[in-house]
């Protein structure tokens, strides 16, 4: 039980760090500049069934997925080329932006 409480405490302490980690205004600029919106929709709310919505998604999940695409685990995945040029900071900014959008 004390271990669980400590775990919760650490999680709560890290929470603000995670939420301020990315600059969402910069993320919005990147989303236009790198054309993420053309498939994922304006503010990540596409209605096209070929593409996942990014609005309201957990920022860490978005970063994790972008890293997965960068690793090119699926050689012909459409996202690989889009993820390739993104730096760690850009991934954080994009994740902050999309996670803040209303689904
Ligand atoms: C040409 C269309 C296209 C463009 C442009 C595009 N994506 Fe994607 N994206 C996809 C497709 C298709 C998938 C689904 C791939 C999969 O899950 O295997 C996807 C999946 C994702 C996922 C995972 C979503 C999930 O729920 O697992 C993220 C995150 C993502 N894209 C972010 C971005 C970002 C950030 C950009 C801009 C830098 C971008 N995408 C540009 C087509 C696109």
Write the layout of secondary structure elements.
Elements: H1 2-19, H2 24-33, H3 36-40, H4 59-70, H5 80-83, H6 88-100
Helix pairs in contact: 2-6, 4-6
This protein binds heme C.
Q: How many distinct beta strands?
A: 0
Q: How would you name the oligomeric state of the polypeptide chains in this document?
A: single chain
CATH superfamily: Cytochrome c-like domain
- Annotation field: number of helices: 6
The CATH class, by name, is Mainly Alpha
CATH topology: Cytochrome Bc1 Complex, Chain D, domain 2
Looking at the overall shape, the CATH architecture is: Orthogonal Bundle
The level of helicity is 55-70%
Q: Would you tell me the structural class of the helices and strands?
A: mainly alpha
Low-confidence stretches: none
**Strand fraction band?**
under 5%
For the report, how would you describe the main beta sheet?
none
User: How many domains, as an integer?
Assistant: 1
Instruction: Choose one word for the global shape.
Output: globular
Q: Tell me, rounded to a whole number, the average pLDDT.
A: 90
- What bound compounds does this protein have? heme C
User: What would you report as the Rg, rounded to the nearest angstrom?
Assistant: 15 Å
- String of helices and strands: HHHHHH
State the separation between the terminal residues, measured CA to CA: 36 Å
Write a structural description.
The protein is mostly helical. The chain has one domain: Cytochrome Bc1 Complex, Chain D, domain 2 (Orthogonal Bundle). It contains 6 helices and no strands. Helix 2 (24-33) packs across helix 6 (88-100) and helix 4 crosses helix 6. The longest helix has 18 residues, at 2-19. The radius of gyration is 15 Å and the shape is globular. The structure holds heme C (HEC). Heme C binds next to helix 3 and helix 4. Heme C is lined by residues 34-36, 38-40, 51-52, 54, 62, 65-66, 77-79, 82, 94.
